[in-house]
Design a protein that fits this description.
The complex is a heterodimer of chains A (about 700) and B (about 160).
Chain A lengths: L1 E5 L12 H8 L2 E6 L20 E3 L5 E5 L8 H13 L6 E5 L16 H28 L6 E4 L2 E4 L2 E7 H10 L27 H6 L14 E5 L9 E5 L1 H4 L4 E7 L2 E6 L2 H9 L2 E4 L10 H8 L1 E9 L2 H7 L2 E9 L11 E7 L2 E6 L4 H12 L6 E4 L14 H13 L3 E4 L2 H6 L7 E9 L5 E9 L14 E8 L14 H19 L3 H6 L6 H14 L10 E10 L2 E11 L6 E11 L6 H20 L5 E2 L2 E2 L17 E6 L13 H18 L10 H6 L2
Parallel strand pairs in A: 4-5, 9-19, 17-18, 21-22, 25-28
Antiparallel strand pairs in A: 1-2, 2-3, 3-4, 6-7, 7-8, 9-12, 10-13, 11-12, 14-22, 15-20, 16-17, 16-19, 20-21, 23-24, 24-25, 26-27
Helix pairs in contact in A: 2-3, 3-4, 10-11, 13-17, 16-17
Chain B lengths: L9 E5 L2 E5 L7 H8 L18 E4 L2 E4 L12 E3 L12 H9 L8 H14 L5 H8 L9 H16 L1
Parallel strand pairs in B: 1-5
Antiparallel strand pairs in B: 1-2, 3-4, 3-5
Classes of the chains: A alpha+beta (about 700), B alpha+beta (about 160).
Chain lengths: ~700, ~160
């Protein structure tokens, strides 16, 4: 790890500065603590390897935190402020947090934006600790005392022995910046002494949310704003053969019909005019992709190619052959949509040689690179700013809409907003990869699982490796030619992999006539943190072994994701004749390392359960002949007020671990917990999501 | 440049201010609020009245602004989330949403709050089921439903005091 302290003259950050220039201009104490180049900056614009500041103490005493990922509902802003406030001994209200602005924040080093806190949190925490030490040293020098005799409190440095001797930290910023800190990293405040971290501080964005003042990309109204609407083919892969634009161009209010390579868009003075004009474009299209959902799982199998072998321990084939009993099954999960309430939107404003894009994304640097590439200009001339983001769930990485807005804006020479309709959002985004997962399991004479062989098709490696100790263990991940565009989705492949593994274990336990939690615990001796949440869940829930099917049932599942450990028990009620499943209560025990904000952690877990129940019970993208059929909330029903169950959460965290993203582990475990509960309730084993009434009715 | 369509001016009161608008009567109330009046608290979510994020009060009743033609608001009174607080004082429902932290990304929040305000005017002490029923047309992809229910109970308590 490299670290350093930089300083500069006073000025304001504005468009047109490189990050280095910005830092130089920003003045005060800028602390850059970074892990690169040891760890490459994911998504950083090419050629920008400079270390950027995570935190600045201005000469006016104002403290600003900078981080690359925007607020999209995880309370990232609030939690980063808590970490910095803790180390700097400041009230949280004294901090400002700047997120997701390519010209002001450090490059993106996160792999998973949803659990950004686990990557960005430690950076901000170290930067704040370093700033605290540098400020204390500057004060110590002024008072000619050792730095240990100086303490920071409420924005001032104090002499411990005489607290009337004090100086505001802003007055120390310049000197602190000059004194490059030598030696090892600054000491972090031990968790036992935390006063701000670990408290349920209300969201810093809350007041703007409840008053309607929060500004999302489609809410910005710069002077001269025009509205763009892009022409979409009727099916995937459709290529434009011919286009008549006259009727569209003739409509009053239409500024231009733009035709540039593959982009056709209408720009108008008003959104309704742009929409109407786009509808009057007369286009003919070539043949598209003839993909249909009816053959989804066959299509995946037919195109599967071995990508990686994640585990190869012992001799799986021999152990399977020698096992007392063998249990094999396949599990299937369909494509699902992110469906954030805010559809993608981007507002691009040309400013001379440069362009400023306000984009609904968690990946401003990826959007910057893509816009620069599309316009053929250097990345430094593209500034991407993330305003409030109305949910992302992994679905807002693609820069498509930012590029469309930037190209239309350049074509008409004024700011253009491209805001997707719900139909575009559900039909033209990428989806969570569908999956087929084959599991073969052999049980030895002593009742232990002697062999576990798992083939994962299409959904990738996340969560594919079982957290259990199996003596003979093989996991092979296969890539497939996916029929639909696919990409990141909250928890990635973790949900599909947990579904296969945890339902299969429940199946094996039921075949062996043993308790499903007991069977897991016998294989968790090398995973103490997971074992701990599993035991706690069984204890607190009042779990007991299977009963004869009564229509009411409980199911267990656990998962490790993004460094969090979750054990989930779902209590369900199943109507045998209709196949309707009602999830009455969900019980979660979770360990997410250092919990910065317990109430927010609970909120993230509640959200994970609710979102997880969507793909557990109802959601699936339907498509036919290259057409996405599920392009409205009527055809793609996401969870509602009616389906929301009671959710009980026990946080049992190891606070000496790093802060971990808490919004995915329970999401991975919820589908298998419900499937296992259905088995408990009515004796039916379901191995394909969603667990729809039709599947419940027809299951053996 | 505005579209030249044969149209009578539409007169509508929004958050207590009267506006005279030269817009086509078929245009949605949501589009007019957001693009013409700059009131962006009501959001676009689906354009079909399926998700509730565009909810505003028309003559005190909750409507989906995305499917309400502006002509329908002629001579009437509209209240949006921006008009809810009085003299800088948050409405009890807004306070309750803060107290329960009943949001994550915040996008559905204005619509939820407007519906809850209307509900509590009709039913000052709603049961949990009545809350679920009244709010059932509102979607929150972050999954904060149980917090929103709690917030509405809190607001109901606060408004009775």
């Amino acid at each position: 790890m490299r670290s350093g302290v930089a300083s500069g003259k006073t000025g304001t950050g504005r468009l047109g500065l490189t990050r280095r220039e910005f830092l130089r201009a920003a003045g005060g104490l800028v602390v850059a603590v970074s892990l690169w180049p040891e760890r490459p900056a994911v998504g950083a614009a090419a050629g920008e390897g400079d270390r950027a500041g995570w935190l600045r103490v201005g000469e006016d005493g104002r403290v600003t935190v900078f981080a690359p990922v925007p607020e999209a509902g995880q309370a990232l802003r609030t939690e980063l402020a808590q970490l910095a406030a803790e180390e700097l001994r400041l009230p949280i209200s004294a901090l400002e947090v700047i997120l997701g602005d390519t010209h002001r924040v450090p490059p993106d080093i996160t792999v998973c934006a949803g659990s950004a806190i686990s990557t960005l949190g430690p950076e901000v925490r170290r930067a704040a600790a370093e700033a605290r030490e540098a400020l204390a040293k500057a004060a110590a020098e002024q008072w000619r005392v050792p730095p240990e005799q100086v303490q920071l409190r409420e924005g001032r440095a104090l002499l411990i022995s005489d607290t009337d001797t004090a100086v505001p930290i802003g007055d120390l910023a310049q000197r602190a910046a000059e004194m490059r800190r030598a030696g090892g990293p600054a000491a972090l405040t031990p968790p036992a002494e935390h006063r701000v971290v670990g408290k349920s501080v209300p969201s810093l964005d809350g007041p703007a949310y409840v008053t309607g003042e929060a500004r999302y990309a489609a809410d910005l109204r710069p002077p001269g704003l025009a509205y763009g609407k892009v022409l979409r083919p009727p099916y995937l892969g459709g290529r434009l053969l011919s286009l008549q634009t006259r009727a569209a161009a003739a409509q009053p209010g239409v500024i231009a019909v733009v035709e540039e390579d593959d982009l056709v868009g209408v720009v108008a003075t008003r959104p309704d005019v742009a929409e109407r004009a786009a509808l009057s474009l007369r286009a003919t299209w070539g043949q598209g992709l003839a993909v249909s959902g009816a053959s989804l799982y066959e299509d995946l199998r037919a195109s599967a190619e071995l990508e990686a072998e994640l585990a190869s321990q012992g001799d799986v084939e021999a152990a399977l052959a020698g096992a007392r009993q063998g249990y094999s099954a396949s599990y299937r999960t369909p494509f699902v949509a992110h469906a954030p309430m805010e559809p993608h939107a981007a507002l691009a404003a040309p400013e001379g040689e440069r362009v400023v894009v306000h984009a609904s994304t968690q990946r401003p640097f990826q959007h910057q690179a893509a816009v620069a590439g599309a316009l053929g200009i250097p990345a430094a001339r593209v500034r991407v700013i993330c305003p409030a983001v109305g949910g992302a769930f992994g679905g807002k990485d693609s820069p498509e809409v930012s590029v469309q807005a930037a190209r239309l804006a350049r074509a008409v020479g004024r700011p253009v907003l491209v805001a997707q309709s719900r139909e575009e959002e559900l039909g033209w985004n990428y989806f969570r990869p569908a999956a087929v997962i084959d599991v073969r399991c052999g049980v030895a004479g002593d009742g232990r699982i002697a062999a576990w062989d798992c083939d994962v098709l299409n959904c990738g490696s996340r969560g594919a490796l079982a957290p259990y100790r199996f003596e003979n263990h093989r996991v092979r991940v296969h890539r497939c030619r996916a029929p639909l565009p696919q990409g990141p989705w909250r928890g990635m492949g973790g949900a599909a992999n947990a579904f296969a593994r945890e339902v299969h274990l429940d199946y094996v336990a039921s075949q062996l006539g043993t308790d499903p939690i007991g069977l897991r615990l016998r294989h968790l001796e090398e995973a103490p943190r997971l074992a701990r949440v599993v035991c706690l869940a069984a204890e607190r829930h009042g779990w007991r072994d299977r009963r004869p099917p009564t229509g009411l049932g409980s199911g267990f599942a656990c998962a490790v994701d993004a460094g969090s450990f979750a054990a989930v028990i779902a209590d369900v009620e199943v109507e045998r004749t209709s196949g309707h499943v009602r999830v009455r209560r969900v019980f979660v025990v979770q360990d997410s390392g250092l919990v910065i904000n317990p109430d927010n952690m609970r909120s993230q877990i509640e959200g994970a359960v609710v979102m997880g129940l969507g793909f557990t019970l109802r959601e699936a993208v339907r498509y036919e002949q290259g057409r996405i059929l599920t392009r409205s909330f009527a055809s793609y029903p996401i969870p509602t007020f009616y389906g929301a169950p009671a959710i009980d959460i026990v946080l049992d965290s190891d606070r000496h671990d790093l802060p971990r993203g808490g919004g995915t582990a329970a999401l991975c475990a919820i589908a298998p917990a419900v499937a296992n509960a259905i088995f408990d309730a009515v004796g039916k084993r379901l191995r394909e999501l969603p667990l729809s009434p039709a599947r419940v009715r027809s299951a053996p | 440049m505005l579209v030249a369509e044969p149209t009578e001016p539409i007169i509508v009161s929004v958050n207590g201010t009267e506006h005279r608008l030269e817009v086509a009567g078929s245009r949605s109330l949501l589009s007019v609020l957001r693009a013409e009046l700059g009131l962006t608290g009501a959001k676009y979510g689906c354009g079909e009245g399926e998700c509730g994020v565009c909810t505003v009060l028309l003559e005190g009743r909750p409507v989906r602004a995305c499917t309400t033609p502006i002509s329908h608001a002629h001579g009437r009174e509209v209240v949006t989330i921006e008009g809810l607080a009085e003299q800088g004082e948050l409405h009890p429902v807004q306070e309750a949403f803060l107290e329960a932290q009943a949001f994550q990304c915040g996008y559905c929040t204005p619509g939820m709050i407007m519906e809850a305000v209307a509900l509590l005017r009709q039913k000052p002490r709603p049961s949990e089921l009545e809350i679920r029923e009244a709010m059932s047309g509102h979607l929150c992809r972050c999954g904060t439903y149980s917090r929103i229910i709690k917030a509405i109970h809190l607001a109901a308590d606060a408004m009775r005091r």
